[in-house]
Amino acid sequence: MRLYNPGARPRGPLSGIAMRIEAMWWRHQRPPLLLRWASGIYAALSRRDQTGRVAAACKPPLPLISIGNITVGGSGKTPFVIWLCGELRARGYRPVVLCRGDGGRLDQPRRILPGDAAAEVGDEALLLALRCGAPVIAGKDRVAGCKLAANLGNVIVLDDGFQYRQLERSCDIVLIPDEGVGNGHLLPAGPLREPLSALERADLVIRTGSTATDPLGNRREWRWRAEVLDIRPFSGGDLPETDDWLVLAGIARADRFFRAAAGRVQVRHEMRFSDHHRYTADDVALILGFGMPVLTTEKDAVKLLPLWPKDKPLAVLPLRGSGEQGLPEIIIGTMLSHRKK
Hints:
about 350 residues, alpha/beta, five-stranded mixed sheet
């Protein structure tokens, strides 16, 4: 029997108000007047910020492929970066990943190592360092991070880079999730970080799913999807033989993960945390108090591991990306053609 126990959620989960607003973003109805008014203020501030970033843009020392989105969270950037690095390496390139280190405390950029703590360097940065097979540099100042990248490879993959316009790019990719762009409104009335007109500056628009049927314009949209693989143990030895699991996630739009988990295990309890939640010893004690094995995302697992008892089962659902035929070649071709200009 699947139960959802909101009273059992640890400290730091999404508030009820935030969850209701986010749910509203993905319904095709007009947002309340107050939120639409706030979106106007956001738009003005965003235009001013973007203008300043463009004015300060500099050319990186290596060809740069930017991976970004136009909606808030949940578009598959991390698994896409992992997939792209594999495709680049298979074709003889030596990619270097450059990211901000969300959820961490880094100000100055540095190379991320597999033994680093997620609380320090960020969950996405650590997962990329574990999975990319390529050097990963994290830090808020990604212009400075480019200087480190110059000695580590021959192409930069900029994670979450569509709005980071301080760096010129050789290929600008925008990922759009299966859900599309929601109600089409800017934050906070909708999920858009920029108006849809901003897609005009993207070289490639890629839909990260398999069911989307609503194209955003007349241009071609490429397809890419992340396949959920079988459960594998992350800590605590082999997978336990049990029908009862606690499933938890602290990622944007976690419903997709919970649906995938329900297809593989008997979900007894669900726990939802905010994106990039920093787990504490109290969180772990409460989770373990249910006395059942835990299934989570890879992003959450790298944050939980330093606090997790070695003898307690912790399992993950890994993701494996796959793009439509010709996508790696069009990305590389766009990068090379821009670099010659």
